[in-house]
Specification:
CATH class of the largest domain: Alpha Beta
Shape: globular
CATH superfamily of the largest domain: FAD/NAD(P)-binding domain
Helix content: 25-40%
Largest sheet: 5 strands, parallel
Number of domains: 3
CATH topology of the largest domain: FAD/NAD(P)-binding domain
Number of helices: 20
């Protein structure tokens, strides 16, 4: 499945090939050529890349020159030989390629995951692998999916592949979820698009390494069309409540349309694809209601408001502020940034950069180059970095870091600030965090944040806010800041999973009362007492440093389809997670989070809920989540088959 053109042949123009190599990511191109040619001798010891997270480049200049010459010679040889088909490597060859890209750091357990991620045989290994009409043609089974963002579209696609009837409900008038709703200036992804995209939808022509909001929105719109699921989406429709019937073993959904009218529909399964970060959080500031000027949250940006020449106050310095503040700094007459807690910034020179022409040129002509490049990001930005944020027992400097590797990361990030702010050393104390890296989200920066802070019309304030007045903000020092507009970059309410829907399960159990502000789920997907309810991007499936949420969604949706298959094949109507399985899993996740920087942090962070527990984050490797969600285990569930239940539940209009 592709949104891009198919592979093109290498041209006879040798210089065109040579020019393209100036833009190539050489280590992954070398591995792709080893696969294409079958010549593993290309993976030379002197050309093993440095894949560590702190490496500025995978090769030294000398290594790059040697690699470029070897690749050029190999490309000409392959072109002249007319070799078009890239053979799938056997296990030993794949192991050799994996060793080359991971410096031997990846175990054999990664091999099946690598083969799946690369789709070396051209197959979509995460497809359902069954059709409902073949295993349960006479069983009525409909699925409701709430949300038409990234996860909802994926669930819809897989359900359609399996021939399982479904309806998607979304409160907006278009697909895209967070990429539709967030439209502030500078909005873009902070995971490279080669990794932040569906693994089975090939796209080798991303315009930037980190795409902007509009590009991502277009991608998901295109995917909705490619998947052919738009007809099953009910836009401008909100799910108000969902109630499980113990007699019929169905979910009754109360839905509200754009006209305010409500109706009740019944489904055998309910999928929540509303995500964690969809309900903006506003701070409780004294006098906020008195402010006379425009005020809004960054997730609800007022596009009708011209901020040029205005005195603008920004409350918050998190990820969204880091993206829009540099834009506001060039237009506002005065910009006051009110910071509660500084953030660690990761030097990301290519954060706003276009993907070089030569790199895209090679993606379109070298088999599996794009896939190998994707995996190199998977390793370097995901499982390869976990040791740097893991708590080291009896570490001597807990006030600044959680271990030796974490301390090394701290030193690197601190030096970035010191070099960037050499002209304004008075800002160093304000911007360098006092907590360990990865206690909070680390923000990508290509220098634009520091450049904004250095502008004459910008002031970073860290004294705290005493109150809001009709005309501005009074900080804790008593200074009044005159403002025309207030913008809040204060994040979301991640602990309120599935809000504002009211969901009642077996015996009338209310989900939000049951969670009591401390959401938990087995694998982040299923909750005891709520049969056939499946969460996507549920509790403890967020990532701090390792990976892309799309990867997690692909794992979760495969598990969801596996559960549906298990029901249909077994003649069951519903499954309910066993409490002891759920509890043991969550105890292990809690122990794992306490071994990570974000789990022992005392700094304020949205990772911890009102109970003080990390309810958002996954503390283990991407490999482990993939392993746990490949196939559902029947022993983890109680299966329900109602006596005398109507096999064809009726829909009723309110």
């Amino acid at each position: 499945m592709s949104l891009s053109t198919s592979l093109e042949p290498l041209p006879r123009d040798d210089e065109a090939i040579r020019r393209a190599l100036d833009d190539a990511h050489l280590p992954t191109l070398l591995v792709a050529l080893a696969q294409w040619s079958g010549d593993l001798s290309l993976l030379r010891e002197d050309l093993v890349p440095d894949t560590s997270f702190v490496a500025e480049a995978p090769y030294t200049e000398e290594q790059a020159a040697r690699a470029r010459a070897l690749i050029f010679e190999t490309l000409l040889r392959l072109r002249d030989a007319g070799l078009e088909v890239s053979p799938a490597p056997d296990r030993d060859a794949l192991r050799r390629m994996l060793d080359h890209l991971s410096e031997g750091g990846a175990t054999d357990d990664y091999l099946p995951l690598l083969r799946e991620e690369l789709a070396l045989d051209g197959a979509d290994a995460r497809a359902p692998g069954f059709r409902k009409e073949e295993i349960a043609p006479d069983t009525s089974f409909r699925v409701a999916v709430v949300g038409a963002g990234m996860s909802g579209l994926l669930a819809a696609h897989r359900l359609k592949q399996a021939g399982v009837p479904f309806v998607v409900f979304d409160k907006n008038d278009e697909v895209g979820g967070t990429w539709l709703e967030n439209r502030y200036p500078g909005c873009r992804v902070d995971v490279p698009n080669a990794f932040y995209s569906y693994s089975f939808v090939e796209k080798n022509d991303w315009p930037h390494f980190f795409s902007t909001r509009n590009v991502l929105l277009d991608y998901f719109r295109d995917c909705a069309d490619l998947f052919g699921v738009r007809e099953q989406i009910r836009f401008r429709t909100e799910v108000v409540s969902a109630h499980w019937s113990d007699e019929q073993n169905v979910w009754s959904l109360r839905i509200r349309g754009a006209d305010g009218g409500e109706q009740t529909l019944e489904f055998q399964a309910l999928v929540s694809a509303v995500g964690q970060l969809n309900r903006p959080k506003l701070p409780e500031l004294p006098g906020l209601e008195r402010f006379a000027g425009p005020r809004f949250h960054s997730a609800d940006w007022d596009t009708s408001l011209d901020l040029a020449g205005k005195k603008v106050g920004v409350v918050g310095t998190g990820a969204s502020a880091a993206q829009f503040v540099p834009h506001l700094a060039t237009t506002a007459s005065e910009l006051r940034i009110f910071q509660r807690t500084p953030n660690w910034m990761l030097p990301t020179p290519d954060y706003h950069e276009a993907i070089p022409t030569g790199m895209t040129w090679l993606f379109r002509r070298v088999p599996h180059y794009a896939q190998w490049y994707r995996f190199s990001l998977f390793w370097r930005m995901a499982d390869g970095i976990l040791p740097m944020v893991r708590v080291e027992k009896d570490w001597a400097h807990p006030e600044r870091s959680v271990g030796a590797a974490n301390d090394e990361l701290r030193a690197m990030l601190t030096e970035y600030f010191r070099e960037s702010l050499a002209a304004a050393p008075e800002l160093i104390e304000k911007v360098v965090p006092g907590y360990a890296p990865a206690s909070k989200r680390i923000i990508c920066d290509n220098g634009s944040w520091v450049e904004a802070l250095l502008r004459d019309n910008v002031e970073l304030l860290s004294d705290g806010i005493r109150e809001v007045t009709e005309t501005g903000i009074v900080d804790e020092s008593g200074r009044h800041h005159e403002l025309d507009v207030l913008i809040f970059a204060t994040g979301f309410q991640p602990s309120k999973f599935l809000s504002p829907m009211r969901i009642t399960g077996r015996g009338g159990l209310d989900l939000h009362e049951h969670w009591d502000g401390d959401a938990r789920a087995y694998l982040g997907i299923t909750v005891p007492g709520f049969p056939n309810l499946f969460c996507l991007y549920g509790p403890n499936t967020n990532i701090v440093v390792n990976g892309s949420i799309i990867y997690f969604s692909e794992c979760e949706v495969r598990y969801l389809l596996g559960c549906i298959k298990m029901l249909l094949e077994g003649g069951h109507r519903a499954l309910d997670c066993r409490p002891e399985v759920h509890d043991a899993y969550n105890q292990r996740v809690d122990r794992g989070n306490l071994q990570m920087a974000w789990g022992v942090a005392t700094v304020n962070t949205w990772y911890q809920n009102e109970k003080g527990r990390v309810a958002q984050n996954w503390p283990f490797s991407l490999l482990e989540y993939w392993q746990q969600t490949r196939h559902p285990n029947p022993a983890d569930y109680e299966f329900l088959s109602p006596a005398g239940a109507d096999a064809n539940p009726q829909q009723s209009a309110a």
